[in-house]
Amino acid sequence: MDKYEAVIKLLMDAVKSESGSDELTIPVGVSNRHVHLSQEDLDTLFGKGYQLTNMKELSQPGQYACKEMVTVCGPKGAIEKVRILGPVRKQTQVEILAADCFKLGRNTTPKMSGELAGTPGITLVGPKGTVETKEGLIIAQRHIHMSPSDALKFGVHDGETVKIETEGIRGGIFNNVAIRVTETSALECHLDTEEANAMGLSGSSKVTIVK
């Protein structure tokens, strides 16, 4: 164990002794398929200068679920009423579930948000038009949002991958959970609905990082 690891261990032990082990649990956020749009694609789908309607604030500061929805179309099928999340982004990103690949007839793999190079494209249909993206279709890699102070408490760093564990009748361990650290992040482990269902998790569940 080097000096850095020793310091982190001492800090974590101090947190456990002062606050109790529950302080080292992480709340779960369950995510269904959804779409992030660029302003250009939003204009094409809903009309020039269209502004998204904030329907519900999400756990991550500044992000929200919109009233607006689109249809996602692939070579073999379509999925209607896919929710848009705001605000608009520089590039359109479509996050689906693994099983959706069969319905759409378009294969993709788990990726971190924003890592879209080399990903397949997809067709989006809105009330005013259609967009065919060249890339941007992903399955979201499971990840944990946290602030720098959270990262210090848990002894992890941005870009690291960890294991998480959950209890319960369907409990178990997930590997390859990415850590995402920003100044504005709220502590939350993001899993999609397939992953959450496999472990019997909901929005009221909590997980722990396995060291």
Account of the 3D structure:
By secondary structure, this protein is of the alpha+beta class. 21% of the residues lie in helices and 37% in strands. The protein contains 5 helices and 15 strands. Residues 15-21 have low confidence and may be disordered. Pathway: Polyol metabolism; 1,2-propanediol degradation. This is Phosphate propanoyltransferase. Involved in 1,2-propanediol (1,2-PD) degradation by catalyzing the conversion of propanoyl-CoA to propanoyl-phosphate. Its cofactor is Zn(2+).
Secondary structure layout:
Elements: H1 3-19, E1 25-31, E2 34-36, H2 39-46, E3 54-57, E4 64-73, E5 78-86, E6 93-96, H3 100-104, E7 110-111, E8 123-125, E9 130-132, E10 137-140, E11 143-146, H4 148-154, E12 161-166, E13 172-181, E14 188-192, H5 193-199, E15 206-210
Parallel strand pairs: 1-14, 6-10, 7-10, 11-13
Antiparallel strand pairs: 1-15, 2-6, 3-4, 4-5, 4-8, 8-9, 11-14, 12-13, 12-15
End-to-end CA span: 14 Å
Counting helices, strands and paired strands, the structural category is alpha+beta
Poorly predicted segments? 15-21
Tell me the β content.
35-45%
Shape: globular
Give the helix tally: 5
Taken in chain order, the helices and strands follow as: HEEHEEEEHEEEEEHEEEHE
- Rg: 19 Å
